[in-house]
Design brief:
The structure holds two protein chains of two kinds.
Chain A: H1 2-28, H2 41-73, H3 80-102, H4 116-138, H5 147-166, E1 169-173, E2 176-179, H6 183-218, H7 225-238, H8 254-266, H9 268-282, H10 288-291, H11 293-316, H12 318-324, H13 328-358, H14 365-398, H15 410-415, H16 418-447
Chain B: H1 3-12, H2 14-38, H3 40-43, H4 54-65, H5 80-86, H6 121-129, H7 157-166, H8 173-183, H9 188-198
Helix pairs in contact in B: 1-2, 4-9, 6-9, 7-8
Classes of the chains: A mainly alpha, B mainly alpha.
């Protein structure tokens, strides 16, 4: 099942990135939708974000959670039938949900666009996921619950809480509902959800992956157990407060904004505590970077994790946010996290995991190295292009001349973005080609499993 | 109990771990989000802010369907440059009937909260169907299908207004009764233009 989830995750990553490249191309050539609704930028962009975050991200997290929880608890999964239900039903939701987005079903809240029938289906699957995961932990044979499971557990609990509150709506038809909250209140609830979906899914969930797979890769224990405890609880406590930094200078109360800013800065401490823990765990195993392509991905992902979790709090400072808000800088920040951190750590994990799951050597180290450099070039170019675009937008929009009049028209500033948007398209293609190489490499690995047979890591009573 | 003992208990009992995570992660929401949701001041309509009429409501739902808020914000920040560029800054009470809110997080195109009345209906119509006909450098998609479809092709307007009334929007029976007639003969682009022309015209801002 973990191999299947790996396959689904790779499939959704390719679909999601292809949609991303297409919308990036539409910003360069706006007639690329050929007048078709379902190719229109607004709809395709929602497909891109949903398929990448919920298709790729959750499939990868669910797969690695099921894999690592069995190994850290030394028992097979609780309710394996239910686990299969989660794994398969989730893919159906992403497929049908994706199609519904292209058909124009849209709840209108960012990263929560799927309409209420899907919201209910997601809730059911999520509760099943929780039953399988915590059921497995409850019957564990190891007294202590390993740190990766705390993070996966926080992912499951907090995402459930956010999703259920933020999705409250009154249905009108299958395709339409109205939010229970209105206006400024809706905004506060939505960004509590939106920011923490990033926090507990894209940060917390993937930290669970890090805490299991990094020590495995490096063949060394976590550097400081105590630091991981402090970082986990501080992270879980403080992340949830940071949402209102998406609403600086918007029509919500001043105290909400300021609290959001302060807690975003506080968040730097637990984020970087984990970074230190990760880097110190690898320290002493650096020579493995020469021989293990998977570890290279994970170490690079840690670097981007550090950069993105530093950049985030900086952008949450109101005087920085004045410039960065509403600009492409935000898009660059998200992608340095999503491509640099989430995608790279997942790719590294898959390069490690899939050969073990199918019992074969990785098909090609050289293709994996090509993937590494294409991905690095892609994410660097992407971030640079969006910094350039975002900082110029932010400063030019605010620029006044000596008599206090606006210096530039919106239209002219928008037109000056063309080179940055073109560069972003190139960057996205580079990252995508790397991912295609990985898909081919892992496919060939799975096909070649009968040729070379390695011993999978033993787990007592494991039936997978 | 020392902190490390507490941690020992949490990491050895899955029930305690679940409880601990729930407790620690909900404090922020309770202290920061819940008061805003209970704050009537944020939900009180500003002077002149009224529920969307059937045509504007239909237009707003088309705006949501096409995800216009991906590229257009509806939130003028209280900064000199923004007030000069767009008009009076946005106030919470102006959004009291916005379900969901459409403030957006990105301005690939300009803010639209004060766009009402700035351009003619004819300009909007041409611009929506073929943006480059009026703004040569525009990278906005064209929406030709909006001109081809009746505004309320699903016949949902009365169900929508009733749902909103349950949420507290003061529609009268007579208004709901008359809604289909108001949409009679209009296309989706008509409804969307009506919505855009009403933006920011209510409330303390007023159209420039």
């Amino acid at each position: 099942m973990v191999a299947w989830l790996t396959g689904f995750a790779i499939f959704w990553s390719l679909v999601g990135m292809a949609a991303g490249i297409y919308v990036a191309a539409e910003l360069v050539w706006p007639t690329l939708d050929f007048g078709r609704e379902w190719l229109s930028y607004g709809r395709l962009r929602n497909l891109h974000t949903n398929v990448v975050i919920f298709g790729f991200g959750i499939a990868a997290l669910m797969g690695t959670a099921f894999y690592s929880v069995q190994r850290t608890c030394h028992v097979p999964l609780f309710a394996p039938g239910l686990a299969w239900f989660c794994a398969l039903a989730w893919q159906v939701v992403i497929l049908l949900g994706g199609l519904s987005l292209l058909a124009g079903w849209n709840g209108g809240k960012e990263y929560a666009e799927l309409e209420w029938p899907f919201d209910i289906a997601i809730t059911v699957i999520w509760v099943s996921f929780a039953v399988v995961f915590f059921g497995t932990i409850a019957k564990r044979r190891i007294q202590q619950i390993y740190v990766s499971n705390w993070f996966y557990g926080a992912l499951i609990i907090v995402i459930a809480m956010l999703h259920i509150v933020n999705s409250q709506a009154i249905p009108v038809a299958w395709s339409k509902s109205y939010s229970l909250f209105a206006g400024a209140q809706d905004a506060v609830v939505q960004w509590w959800y939106g920011h923490n979906a990033v926090g507990f899914l894209l940060t917390g969930g993937f930290l669970g992956m890090l805490y299991y797979f990094l020590p495995k890769h490096a063949d060394r224990p976590i550097w400081s157990y105590r630091l991981s405890i402090v970082a986990f609880w501080a992270f879980t406590y403080s992340y949830i407060w940071a949402g209102p930094h998406h609403l600086h200078y918007n029509a919500v109360p001043e105290w909400v904004q300021s609290l959001g800013m302060v807690m975003s800065l506080v968040l730097l401490a637990p984020s970087w505590a984990t970074l230190v823990n990760g880097v110190m765990t690898v320290a002493g195993a650096w020579e493995k970077l020469r021989t293990d392509p998977a570890l290279k991905f994970i170490v690079l992902s840690l670097a981007f994790y550090g950069l993105a979790t530093f950049e985030g709090p900086m952008m949450a400072i109101k005087s920085v946010n004045v410039v960065s808000h509403f600009t492409d800088w935000t898009i660059g920040h998200v992608h340095s996290g999503a491509l640099g951190w989430n995608a790279l750590i997942t790719f590294g994990t898959f390069y490690f995991l899939l050969p073990r799951l199918v019992g074969a050597e990785l098909y090609s180290h050289s293709l994996a190295n090509w993937h590494f450099w294409l991905a690095l070039a892609g994410v660097m170019l992407y971030v640079l292009a969006m910094w350039g675009a975002g900082v110029s937008q932010g400063l030019l929009w605010l620029s006044l001349d000596e008599i206090g009049e606006l210096r530039y028209s919106f239209k002219d500033i928008m037109a000056s973005m063309a080179p940055y948007y073109a560069l972003r398209l190139v960057a996205g293609c580079s990252f995508f080609i790397g991912a295609v190489l990985m898909a081919y490499n892992l496919w060939m690995t799975a096909k070649g499993r009968s040729v070379v047979r390695a011993t999978p890591p033993p787990v007592v009573g494991e039936a997978w | 109990m020392r902190a490390i003992d507490l941690q020992r208990r949490l990491e050895r009992h899955s029930g305690w771990l679940i409880f601990g995570i729930l407790l620690v992660s909900s404090i922020g929401g309770l202290v920061q989000v819940l008061p805003s949701v209970l704050d009537d001041g944020l939900a009180t309509p500003a002077a002149g802010t009224v529920p969307y009429d059937p045509v504007a409501l239909t237009g707003r739902d088309i705006y949501i369907r096409e995800s216009c808020s991906t590229c257009h914000s509806q939130q003028v920040r209280p900064l000199l440059a923004e007030v000069l560029r767009y008009g009076p800054f946005s106030k919470a009470g102006e959004f009291a009937f916005d379900r969901p809110f459409l403030w957006g997080s990105k301005r690939t195109g300009p803010d639209l909260h004060r766009v009402g009345g700035k351009y003619s209906d004819a300009w909007h119509r041409i611009h929506l169907l073929d943006p480059r006909a009026v703004v040569p450098d525009s990278i906005m998609p064209a929406y030709p299908w909006l001109a081809e479809r009746p505004a309320d092709s699903g016949g949902m307007i009365q169900a929508k207004m009733r749902a909103l009334r349950r949420l507290g929007h003061p529609y009268t029976d007579a208004e709901i009764e008359a809604a289909p007639a108001a949409l009679q003969g209009l296309t989706e682009v008509d409804a969307l233009v009506a919505f855009l022309q009403g933006l920011g015209a209510s409330g303390s801002g007023g159209s420039p």
